[in-house]
Amino acid sequence: MAYLDHAATTPMLPEAVEAMTAQFAVTGNASSLHAAGRRARRTVEESRETLADALGARPSEVVFTSGGTEADNLAVKGLYWSRRDAGPDRTRILASPVEHHAVLDAVDWLGEHEGATVEYLPVDRYGRVRPEALREAIERNPHDVALVTVMWANNEIGTIMPIRELANVTAEFGIPLHADAVQAFGQVPVDFGASGLAAMTVSGHKIGGPYGIGALLLGRAYSPVPVLHGGGQERHVRSGTLDVPAVAAFAAAGRIAAERREWFAREIGGLRDDLVDAVRTAVPDVILGGDPARGGRLPANAHFTFPGCEGDSLLLLLDAQGIECSTGSACTAGVAQPSHVLLATGTDPDLARGTLRFSLGHTSTQADVVAVAKAIGPAVERARTAGLT
Amino acid sequence: MTETSQRPRPLRVLAAMSGGVDSAVAAARAAEAGHDVTGVHLALSANPQSFRTGARGCCTIEDSRDARRAADVIGIPFYVWDLAERFREDVVDDFVAEYEAGRTPNPCLRCNEKIKFAALLDKALALGFDAVCTGHYAKVLVNEDGTRELHRASDMAKDQSYVLGVLDDRQLAHALFPLGDTLTTKDEIRAEAERRGLAVAKKPDSHDICFIADGDTQGFLAKRLGKAEGDIVDESGAVVGSHEGAYGFTIGQRKGLRIGTPAPDGKPRYVLDISPVNNTVTVGPVAALDVSALTAVKPRWCGTAPTGPGTYTAQLRAHGGETEVRAELLDGTLEVTFTEPVRGVAPGQAIVLYDGTRVVGSATIATTQRVTAPA
């Protein structure tokens, strides 16, 4: 079995499993005032400090959520509402067109229901937003921009965005910038404090932590309008009883992700390079998606377009041989649509149907690469016979 | 002769799973027979509806999920394939065009011909599968020389060979119908599903056209073809009513005519003829529906085409009865004479010819000859 879909979810680290199971046996609501509550609270706050440390943030800047999707929604909707409340003219949202659907659909929803004007920033053929393009978009009317949202690294094609440079531009105009860093955390240096970001999304299960936990890193100057109202936990920004076992496990995974980041980039990045070489050797006309420069893309991401193939066909053929990967595009009722990311980079829609994303992770080995090297050639040949239906 | 579903050699089988009970049990039986089965749900609507509306279709997200759960229980891989574009071109657009031309199409038959045993089968074969498996009630028998025969299901009440009558020898060679030799009631199929732990056991049957989820064919056509008011006339040509589009009628239809003036004989009137050219619908007494002969085009044969005239039994619509005919292929057109006149034959429908239980072939009805010609 070759599991090469770590960008979808990656196996939990033993340390995270241990931290989580240890907490299952402990009673205590972190909001309670008695001893059990204080004990739970202590675990949460220690975890918050650990995560803050791993991400270059202050503990008070870590707002726990139920995952990346909720953190994205809180950032985009909450910041939009609070900025508009403070200045009714601020209704323009600038977003990259290659965002995850958690951002894209939240932004579109604001456009449809909350009077927002959504403007998608131009990207180059690697899906990257240039600081000049952001500046140009803002300068058309700096006073009506509510927020800017650009992901740190793309989940499909792995392209890394120039977040620091983009934040320099938004800072000039006093506009908050949010970045979805779900894929970046653990793979590239992510320092919230140095980034200049107003808000940043991270998720537990993409870094070896559990499902159902994530965080919005939120600069102390920002008070987004809550999406969830209730008991006033998490700076009154995100109500809801804290999931202590998940928080503890997330922190354990986050600490390790930060500690092993250089090892990950070197070792897993090396395996990724081998995988790209192997696929190129087996299928000479394959097109590598995203930035070909090593420094411009996530070390664990390999994205390919196979001309004349249906990604679905390739997935089925590889799955039958125990190789698990993704077509890299979002699904509607399990039906693959041409990826909005590829379309944004100017890829022909027919070509965009023939994509596969291999994403490596902390359990990947040379054997996984060998399995792909062996299977990909015949699979592509067969998928080409089946053609595009 | 042996049945394909009992062939000993394990096949790589692609099971088309609609989310209904029949296709789920068929896939389960194929897997149990030792075949290497992969389930696939065909997404046939570009905009699948989240929830079931009205009668059950096979295009909702819920159907897709039901199919996936069935595959989980059977323990086979499962995928959703998007054939919406092909389905729209080959089935839905054809359906609308046929009605527009005053004919009455059978979209299920068209789907079997163009989608399940063409687009899907071709893709399956290219990907290394040997056969496509469906939950149809029909039998494929293998002759000594390797050729295939399509037969009615063991249980005549559930037989669906009519909608498979368009399949040729090559298509039959790669078709697997594990329910074809079932001599059990639908309740027993449901019981089998229950026994196998398939949650679709209690799901209601689908009867309607899958892409018209609310069952309102008239409304569906009106949305696509627009309203075109015209006259309803009797056999003498006298105007007896009006309609909002001649395409919305089927020969033999009685309900929904909304004719104000009663017929001279006081008896109900039926649609006798639809003329899309002058947008007129002709109505008349039931006796005027009797047909003595017909011609049919685009014949397809399960095996070699018969030469010379022959006597067959014919089926003229899904769930229709059998009737004896003489048929002959002349210059690519099938000329059919009925031993006894039949009622309510609509151009566009398929005529499927049988020799006993064996499907000989099918063709699309083009013209009919009435016992009493309309004035």
From TrEMBL, chain A:
Domain Aminotransferase class V: 3-371
Alphabetically ordered keywords of this record: Iron, Iron-sulfur, Metal-binding, Pyridoxal phosphate, Transferase
Tree of life domain: Bacteria
SUPFAM superfamilies associated with the record: PLP-dependent transferases
UniProt keyword annotation of Coiled coil present: no
GO molecular function, one term: iron-sulfur cluster binding
Record's catalysed reaction(s): (sulfur carrier)-H + L-cysteine = (sulfur carrier)-SH + L-alanine
Cofactors that this protein relies on: pyridoxal 5'-phosphate
Family the entry assigns: Belongs to the class-V pyridoxal-phosphate-dependent aminotransferase family. NifS/IscS subfamily.
Name the record gives this protein: Cysteine desulfurase
Species: Streptomyces apricus
Automatic annotation (TrEMBL), chain B:
Record site: Interaction with tRNA: 136, 349
Region spans: Interaction with tRNA: 158-160
A molecular function (GO) term: tRNA-uridine 2-sulfurtransferase activity
Domain tRNA-specific 2-thiouridylase MnmA-like C-terminal: 293-365
Positions annotated as active site in the UniProt record: 111 (nucleophile), 210 (cysteine persulfide intermediate)
Domain tRNA-specific 2-thiouridylase MnmA-like central: 219-284
GO cellular component, one term: cytoplasm
GO biological process: tRNA wobble position uridine thiolation
Binding residues annotated for ATP, in chain numbering: 16-23, 42, 135
InterPro entries with a match to the protein in the record: MnmA-like (IPR004506), MnmA-like_C (IPR046885), MnmA-like_central (IPR046884), MnmA-like_central_sf (IPR023382), Rossmann-like_a/b/a_fold (IPR014729)
Catalytic activity: S-sulfanyl-L-cysteinyl-[protein] + uridine(34) in tRNA + AH2 + ATP = 2-thiouridine(34) in tRNA + L-cysteinyl-[protein] + A + AMP + diphosphate + H(+)
Similarity field: Belongs to the MnmA/TRMU family.
PANTHER family linked: MITOCHONDRIAL TRNA-SPECIFIC 2-THIOURIDYLASE 1, TRNA 5-METHYLAMINOMETHYL-2-THIOURIDYLATE -METHYLTRANSFERASE
Protein name: tRNA-specific 2-thiouridylase MnmA
Protein source organism: Streptomyces apricus
